Amino acid sequence: MNTTILDGKKLAADMRADIASQVAQLKAEHGVTPGLGVILIGVDPASTSYVTAKEKACEEAGMYSQDLRVPANTTQEEALALVQGMNADPRIHGILVQLPLPKHIDESAVINAIAPEKDVDGFTPVNVGRMMIGQTCYLPCTPHGIIQMLLKAGVQTSGKHAVVVGRSNIVGKPVAHLLMRKAEGGNATVTVCHTGTRDLAAFTREADILVVAAGRPDTVTGGMIKPGAVVIDVGVNRIPDATKKCGFRLAGDVDFESAKEVASLITPVPGGVGPMTITMLLYNTLESARRACKGDG
Ligand code: NAP
Questions:
Q1: pLDDT tens across 6-42, in order?
Q2: What are the boundaries of each domain within the chain?
Q3: pLDDT tens-digit map of 265-277
Q4: Pocket test for ligand 1, best of 54, 165, 173, 237 (most atoms within 8 A of CB)
Q5: In this structure, which residue's CA is closest to atom 47 in ligand 1?
Q6: What is the CATH number of domain 141-274?
Q7: CATH architecture of residue range(s) 31-114
Q8: Do domains 31-114 and 141-274 have the same CATH topology?
Q9: How far is the C-alpha of 83 from the C-alpha of 79, rounded, in Å?
Q10: Which ranges of the chain would DSSP assign to H, the alpha helix?
Q11: Residues enclosing ligand 1, CB less than 6 A?
């Protein structure tokens, strides 16, 4: 099989260069610098590394970035106050609360406290509802990044059978919605699989486009893929590896070696969906700053 490995890093770099020039233009024309506020509670290593990558990307795009890193014993009231402070701060156009939160904090209460016009992750009920009924909103970053990858790779989605493995609120459900909506990068017939699905392989083998977001390595192997399918691996799993300085290696949810023998196009992990997620966060933050300039933020 002549398989294309979709380089998410390159796609993301191209999009980020374009975003950086639009940021410069917004500064020059309106004197406004798009700003992202990030709240990180606790010291989870994966969360810390995501947040650091997001801040670096923000700075490289010429955006303002405000980083609040607070200890794991922060109370719910304190967490809500941090969000409210960013809601009221005109330098901040987008707010990101890094999940998961420590168990004593009600995650949905904190997410719901984000002003919808600054919800650049697209996680608040207002944004999710707007997305579902096709109104202007911030599309959630990972699902939006996946659709952008498909579009930029020239993958035709209309009329295709897309199978999504996973039904989480942040990946599975929204990507299924975007793939089925009547819009560019959508119009597919979508099947969603989860742990209640009997015979997962029977469904994945029917997929023209297979999106895997299960959070478990090797959930999909080459034998579960239809020859010529497009495979988007969303998973990020840390596999202990004593040969690595950091003590682990990253793997997706798809067994890359066997899958690449069957798929026509596949995303690697790392270097696939991940860089696009951060890029869409910058995209949404820029859009929020633009809306604020127009007075409809
Ligand atoms: P999640 O909340 O744990 O959801 C996983 C989903 O997969 C659940 O719906 C679960 O089904 C389903 N599932 C798990 N094992 C399955 C199996 N064997 N067969 C069928 N379905 C199965 O995870 P998530 O937040 O969606 O994230 C998924 C993965 O993507 C994780 O590895 C995460 O780290 C990664 N991720 C990457 C990015 C990125 O930017 N690259 C962004 C977000 C997430 P049930 O609902 O029945 O439990």
A1: 999 999 999 999 999 999 999 999 999 999 999 999 9
A2: 31-114, 141-274
A3: 999 999 999 999 9
A4: 165
A5: 195
A6: 3.40.50.720
A7: 3-Layer(aba) Sandwich (3.40)
A8: yes
A9: 7
A10: 8-30, 45-60, 76-88, 107-112, 125-132, 141-152, 172-180, 200-204, 256-259, 273-294
A11: 142, 165-168, 170-172, 193-197, 200, 213-216, 219, 234-237, 273-274, 277
